[in-house]
TrEMBL record:
It holds the Pfam family MTS. One of its GO terms (molecular function) is peptide chain release factor N(5)-glutamine methyltransferase activity. The gene is prmC. GO terms for biological process: methylation. It comes from Nonlabens arenilitoris. This is Release factor glutamine methyltransferase. Belongs to the protein N5-glutamine methyltransferase family. PrmC subfamily.
């Protein structure tokens, strides 16, 4: 079997689940991450015969993909902000829009070599570790309610050679934070149950709901708690950053005002309200 034949097979069998261009991208990820091909290999090997082992790997991946399993959970890898992160079913898959949040934080603090940073609900650690990689003199603490997620985050820290502290903690159960931070950042659960119909099946059926969803009638529960904790945990010029629900920018602004923060909300590259920056009044 040639790569061209595999491309046709993937298109035929995954067509009910994904658009054509996404299927192409998925197969490229499989080839790069599981066959150790370069991007140029994927472009020029169309007519080459695959080895038996290569064919087996691609067929096995296709069987898993047909169950709506995300390709990142099949390869065990996700690429984020120029780094490779281990992922599994205990962690959300890092998203492109979250890279924009990381980029904002790094650019906002480009003049500072040292920062004390807290990443709440860290998952893979992609936010905190990407900032640590860009600012190696900083101290970064990763917090999550899931020990399984923290194991993955620590593994990613070891792989990236970015030493960090980790805290196993449900932020909703905290009365206060024990340190003062220059940056507190969080991408907490924010998808309301009423929005589940907009979520792709491969997310609904595979990614941890604990890290995704909140109740419709208390959608800002994590933001409220983190803002309350941050009032006494930010340094005088400290900044609180969030990734937010695109449908709730006005509610987020109102919450920040209520709790004594000046805030600004930014759109992502897709034109959706996605990032929020808060400073104390």
């Amino acid at each position: 079997m040639t790569l061209n034949q595999v491309k046709s097979l993937y298109q035929e069998q995954l067509k009910p689940l994904y658009p054509e261009n996404e299927i192409h991208s998925i197969l490229q990820i499989v080839c790069e991450d599981l066959l150790n091909w370069s991007r140029s290999d994927f472009m020029i090997k169309d007519r080459e015969e695959l080895s038996h082992i290569q064919e087996e790997i691609l067929q096995k991946s296709l069987r898993e993909l047909r169950t709506s399993k995300p390709v990142q959970y099949i390869t065990g890898k996700a690429h984020f902000y120029g780094h490779e992160f281990t992922v599994n079913e205990h962690t959300l898959i890092p998203r492109q829009e979250t890279e924009e949040l990381v980029d904002m934080i790094i650019k906002d603090h480009k003049a500072e070599s040292y920062l004390n940073i807290l990443d709440i609900g860290t998952g893979t650690g992609c936010i905190g570790l990407s900032i640590k990689a860009a600012k190696p003199d900083s101290i970064v603490t990763l917090m999550d309610v899931s020990n399984d997620a923290l194991v993955i985050a620590q593994s990613n820290a070891n792989h990236l050679k970015t030493p960090v502290k980790t805290i196993l903690q449900d932020v909703l159960a905290l009365d206060e934070l024990s340190e003062k931070y220059d940056v507190i950042v969080s991408n907490p659960p924010y998808v309301r149950n009423l929005e589940k119909k907009e979520i792709h099946d491969n997310v609904l059926e595979n990614e941890p709901h604990l890290a995704l969803f909140v109740e419709d009638d208390n959608a800002l529960i994590f933001y409220r708690k983190i803002m309350e904790l941050s009032k006494n945990a930010l340094q005088p010029n400290g900044i609180l950053y969030f990734e937010i629900n695109q449908y709730l920018p006005d509610e987020m602004k109102a919450l920040a005002t209520e709790l004594g923060f000046e805030s600004e909300i930014f759109k992502d590259l897709n034109g959706n309200y996605r990032m929020m920056k808060c400073v104390r009044n």
